[in-house]
Amino acid sequence: MVRRCSPNCAGSSRPAELAAPARSGNTRRRALGWLARGLLAALLLLLFWQAVLLTQVIWWSRFDPGSTSFMRMRLSELRQADPKATLRQHWVPYARISIHLKRAVVAAEDDRFLEHGGFDWIGIQRAIERNAERGRLAAGGSTISQQLAKNLFLSSSRSWLRKGQEAVLTLMIEATWDKRRILEVYLNVAEWGNGIFGAEAAARHYYGRPASGLGPAEAARLAVMLPNPRHYERNYGPRLAAHASRVQRRMVHSQVP
Rounded distance, CA 215 to CA 150, Å? Predict the structure, then answer.
C-alpha cells in the first residue's frame, strides 16, 4: 500500500532548502567583514609607520643623524669580510664645506635643486627619453632630495614599493627642511668610496685636506664619483675625467643655498 503525503508533508523540506543559501550568504558577509577589517588594520598600521618616519624626519631637521640606513647596510657588508671594519665619516657643518663642492654636486646631480619641490619633472622626462633611446636603464632622474631620502631610510634595492616610500619621504623632507639643511645632510652622508662617507672623509681620503679646502677641480672630480663611488674609486678613467671637466665649467653657474 502506497502512503500518500499530505500537502503539509510535501512542503516540510522547503525551510531546509531555503536555509542553505542563507547560510552561504552569511558566510560571504562574514568573510567580507574580516577582509574589510584586515584592510583597515593594514591602513592604520601604514599610517602609523608614516607618522613614525615623519617624526624622525622632523627630528633630523634640527639634529644631525649619527648614521643612515645605507651606512649601516654598507658596514654590515664590510664586516662580513672584516669583523673589525669601520666607516670613515666626520660630520662638518655647512659653512665648513667648500662652496666649490656644493656647486659641483648641484651641477652634477641636480642642477634645478633650488627650483623644484623634491622632484625634477624635466629631468625625469629626459631620463625616460634617454632610456628609451638606449633600450635600457642608463639614466636616472633622482634629485638630491630623493637620494637623501633613500640614503637615510631605505635600501638600494629597486622596487615600486621602495620607490613609493622614497617619494613619500622626499615630500616629508621638502616640507620640513630648507634647501640648506637638505644639502648639508646630503654632503655629510653621501658615499664617496669603500667605507667613505661624507665630504670631510672624502676630502681627506683623496686629497689629504679638509672639505673646506677643496678647489674647483677637486670638487668636480668628487661630484662625478657620486653615481657609483666604489667603482670610480678604483676606475677613474678618461671618460669620467672629461665629465668632471664639463661639470667644472658648468658649476660656476650653479645656485646653492
Answer: 29
